[in-house]
Amino acid sequence: MSLLATIDHADAEMTEALARAMAAILRPGDVLALEGAVGAGKTHFARALIRARQGDAAEDVPSPTFTLVQTYDDPLGTEIWHADLYRLTHPDELAELGLEDAMQDAIVLIEWPDRGGALPQPLTVHLEPVPDFPDLRRITLSGAPARWGQIARMAEIARLVHRAGFGGARMLPLAGDASSRRYFRLQDGDRRAVVMDASPGTTGPYVAMTQWLRNRQFDAPEILASDQVDGLLLLEDLGDDLVARVLEDQPRLAPRVYGRLTDLLVALHGYEPPDFVLRLDGPELARQVGMFAEWYPEAAGVPGAGTEVAEAVARLHARLCASTPPVLGLRDFHAENVIWRGDQPLGLLDFQDAVAVHPAYDLVSALQDARRDVDPEVEAHEIARYIAATGVDGDEFRAAYALLGAQRSLRIMGIFTRLARRDHKRRYLAFMPRVWALIQRDLAHPALAPLARALEGIPAPTPEVIERITAQ
């Protein structure tokens, strides 16, 4: 057992914040051993954790001192057992109480765990009073790092949440993305916020872009609190109405929604891009599309193919895009990263990788979506809408649009292949046929003939090819 984290001078709210943070990641089979003297706060900790798991269905959580065991239904999908073994006379009584079986498929919290003998890889939560400060506790978390390594991270999140005045909030995990970032929603009555859990020291670009966008009246989430050294941010919660969900539920809104997306880009492109973002020029686009040649051809059964793709992209960019001044591109500007708020301005998410790039780049990102079909008529209308609003040359813009669409989709093919083969995230393979179809549409533009030749001989992601990648 290893020391994982220590929280000194924890008041009642900090203790609850830690319990609620831990509740967000517990899973069936997890056992928490709650240690400490009488009055140390073990039941207080357990009560906060159980009620956090139950949310709106929260029950009273009495101390199990006399009943020995209390069980609770968990709306998150498992059962919770809360035991107090102080009055246990022999470890064999664990079986009679049903605890041994519960430890296999329930979340089990045990006070006075030393009375029950050895436990299966528990997380030990030790609470002890702070001398001369009766209302404060020192909390020590210990366990096997392989099983409980992320608990130290949850302790850091609890500190941030407590410091920001959200110590009483319930914490729930939000769906992640293809990155290593995690998100948690905080709910405290009518108040909501979102925790971004990123790698330590990596939040600088997000903070810089947030400030840049908000200073120009674009609706990026307000940063409520931060610990940039540890890579933690507490953000304004813009809600659940992702454009993707709105379009799924109300497809008739597509013309209006995509019109708003185009208008936002027109407004965004009226500003000079900040000097702290990466310049996504021809050489950089060529370098990034190398992801395709590195991963997809070999996985599809034609190793060594696609080596001329990057050079073709660089040459075409020099001919079709280089003379156009770059604008700010949010880079992952699509239906999964924009919040629909009716007549209010669109909410923006996931813009930390913003770049200085050709104006067509984000329009392609929105209209050639790897995850969902966009009506070709809507796509054509929005391209024309952007051209009319900005006054750019229509033929030049459409040629650049086709090139950047092909480059983005080829890179996505490489990323999806890498996610499947290296990271065992295979769900993205289902999007490959759509992405390949987008590539073929873009290659149909006469200006892209050199890129089409560079891709000759590389097979489409047929079911057989996808199965091959899955098997690898």
From TrEMBL:
Cross-referenced Pfam families: APH, TsaE
Any GO BP: tRNA threonylcarbamoyladenosine modification
An MF annotation (GO) of this entry: ATP binding
UniProt-listed InterPro entries: Aminoglycoside_PTrfase, Kinase-like_dom_sf, P-loop_NTPase, T6A_TsaE
Keyword vocabulary terms for this entry: ATP-binding, Cytoplasm, Magnesium, Metal-binding, Nucleotide-binding, tRNA processing
Domain Aminoglycoside phosphotransferase: 173-387
Main location: cytoplasm
Subcellular location: Cytoplasm
Entry GO terms, CC: cytoplasm
Family recorded in the similarity comment: Belongs to the TsaE family.
Protein name per Swiss-Prot or TrEMBL: tRNA threonylcarbamoyladenosine biosynthesis protein TsaE
The species this protein was found in: Paracoccus sulfuroxidans
